[in-house]
């Protein structure tokens, strides 16, 4: 939660709710710059709107030019695709849509899940140039919201705002001299918390099966090798230097053992299993309620 007395700028963007808390009110010009950054990101990456750049690739093969920050997104996805042996992939879109999580938000399955096609088979993503060899449904949701959190923080800092909490519906980045305490949402009851963590100049992101769940046990965290929802883990939290990494790693924890990820990334983590048990890294500076 932001500190008492802080000003909170609330808005909707990329299909979710946002809050930016700062000690002082943000001027209209700065707010407009933040909103435009969100709008441009949505027009670039949203698979839910027909006029986005990535939606062009769902209609026909071709090449699109992406903004400069896409290079970091590409490198992160490539590494996690490798570490997960294809389980975490930006090509999970077809199975999400078959399960009902498509542009129409029908939440009614239209077919059985399908394994994602191979990255090397369909994509050439050279930093800011993305070529699809066939029509593809690209989904960068596992890291995109986190990256957008980081981009908004860059704008705040460029305007001299060093004390802030950017909260993209649970994906957070804190900056400043006074840490904030954040509740860890119960994976089965969003009105309850299973613990709390102190966030100090770092990002905290979560992935949970209950965040986008529908039908008979369906949710949005899928294994790219099968297209099926993952059922062994119900929630994860990560703390990292950037929200993009924390966001992506929270999803990767559903598919990859933490020790494998720790060889490539500097982060702390907590996982909650469907059995009700939990495991966490030694440096996860939080407390779980009993």
Explain what the structure shows.
The protein is 28% helix and 29% strand. The protein contains 8 helices and 16 strands. The protein has helices spanning 28-45, 53-59, 70-83, 93-98, 119-122, 141-158, 243-252, 258-262; strands at residues 7-13, 16-22, 62-65, 123-126, 129-132, 164-168, 171-175, 180-186, 189-199, 203-208, 213-214, 218-219, 233-240, 268-273, 278-280, 286-288. The strands form 4 sheets. An 8-stranded antiparallel beta sheet has the order 1-2-6-7-10-13-14-15. A 3-stranded antiparallel beta sheet has the order 3-5-4. It has a 3-stranded antiparallel beta sheet with strand order 8-9-16, with no helix packed on it.
Question: How many distinct helices?
Answer: 8
Q: Separation of termini?
A: 21 Å
Mean pLDDT: 91
Strands, total number: 16
Helix and strand sequence = EEHHEHHHEEHEEEEEEEEHHEEE
Strand residues, percent: 25-35%
Structural class: alpha+beta
Largest sheet: 8 strands, antiparallel
> What coarse outline follows from CA principal-axis ratios?
globular
As a whole number of angstroms, the C-alpha radius of gyration is: 18 Å
Helix content: 25-40%
